[in-house]
Design goal:
With 330 residues, this protein is an alpha/beta fold. It contains eleven helices and twelve strands. The longest helix has 18 residues. It starts with 17 loop residues before the first helix and ends with a helix. The structure holds ligand PBG.
């Protein structure tokens, strides 16, 4: 039945007070949805603020337990770890070394705060001297030879105790390669969260600064997705699910809300969205200039990502949002 129109219908009636608005609010952010990305660096007693991402730090392993304790106490269920190795090489060896920086960090966290879900980013770009997400031959990132190294990295993370592995490289066939390597090594219960629709985005700029992972030549457009494409994202997601992904991700989030909605509508697997570094830093910068209210802007952005259909949100604001949700702010 169509509603009678004005003056019988007045939508403002239900907007008058905060309690009325609360009663009819359609989307609620929850701390349960949040995944907090963190950077782990070599050294001792390091808590090094990332210039391009104020409020986020590179942590040395010895300082992780206290930070993880705080994250868990805030009610955040999961973290995503990125490693910044001591040394990089052509084939990203530290990415799959048993005593690599991420592997050591995972062991430390699992020992200190075992209930916290530790997700590891599986990629080579933080570990390669050229900054690309795979091995290079004739100036090109090679797909199939890279799969073997990604599978090794995933197995080494699982062996260290990672609860979930998250491949972010965008090579074809990586989910299948990782699934079969995990299973062959006794990790058949380790889920894969695949960065399924990951676009070649300008919004990764601050992250590459933080992880020192900018490509030394060329760019990532030969493997990450072309931003104008929508149908291709659905193909990527379907392929990853067919290869065994337990959860899929859309990344970045804010410029791709339409993709999040379509992915949500096409599949029943949990959908994650990555509110990436550039989406965080541009709000931070504007807030520092006094041009907008950071917390309100952050909550509005994250709520829009949830409203678009994301079940899980990776965000550098996780701790601030957890605190705000506790304080009943929004
Ligand atoms: C690694 C990776 C990147 C991000 C997550 N995993 C960088 C990239 O692809 O260049 C970006 C995260 C962010 O910007 O917050 N491949």
């Amino acid at each position: 039945m169509p509603q009678p129109s004005f003056p019988i219908t007045r939508l403002r009636r239900l907007r008058r007070t905060e309690n009325l608005r609360r009663m009819v609010r359609e989307t609620a952010l929850s701390v349960d949805d949040l995944i907090y990305p963190l950077f782990v660096a070599p050294g001792l007693n390091v808590k090094d603020e990332i210039l391009s991402m104020p409020g986020n730090y590179r942590w040395s392993i010895d300082r992780l337990p206290a930070e993880m304790e705080e994250i868990a106490t805030l009610g955040i269920p999961a973290v995503l770890l990125f490693g910044i190795p001591e040394a990089k090489d052509e084939v990203g060896s530290e990415g799959y070394a048993d005593d690599g920086i991420v592997q050591q960090a995972v062991r430390k966290i699992e020992e200190a705060v075992p209930e916290l879900i530790v997700i590891t980013d599986v990629c080579l770009c933080e570990y390669t001297s050229h900054g690309h997400c795979g091995v290079i031959h004739d100036g090109e990132v090679q797909n199939d030879p890279t799969l073997r190294l990604l599978a090794k990295a995933a197995v080494s993370h699982a062996a260290a105790g990672a609860d979930i592995v998250a491949p972010s490289d965008m090579m074809d066939g990586r989910v299948a390669a990782i699934r079969s390597a995990l299973d062959a090594n006794g990790f058949e219960m380790t889920p894969i969260l695949s960065y399924a629709a990951k676009y070649a985005s300008a919004f990764y700029g601050p992250f590459r600064d933080a992880a020192d992972s900018a490509p030394q030549f060329g760019d990532r457009r030969g493997y990450q997705m072309d931003p104008p494409n929508r149908r291709e994202a659905l193909r990527e997601v379907q392929l990853d699910i067919d290869e065994g992904a337990d959860m899929v991700m859309v990344k970045p989030a804010l410029s791709y809300l339409d993709i999040i909605r379509e992915v949500r509508d096409m599949t029943d697997v949990p959908v994650a969205a990555y509110n990436v570094s550039g989406e965080y830093s541009m709000v931070k910068a504007a807030a520092q200039m006094g041009w907008l209210d950071e917390l309100r802007a952050a909550l509005e952005i994250l709520t829009s990502i949830k409203r678009a259909g994301a079940d899980l949100i990776l965000t550098y604001w996780a701790k601030d949002v957890a605190r705000a949700l506790r304080g009943g702010d929004w």
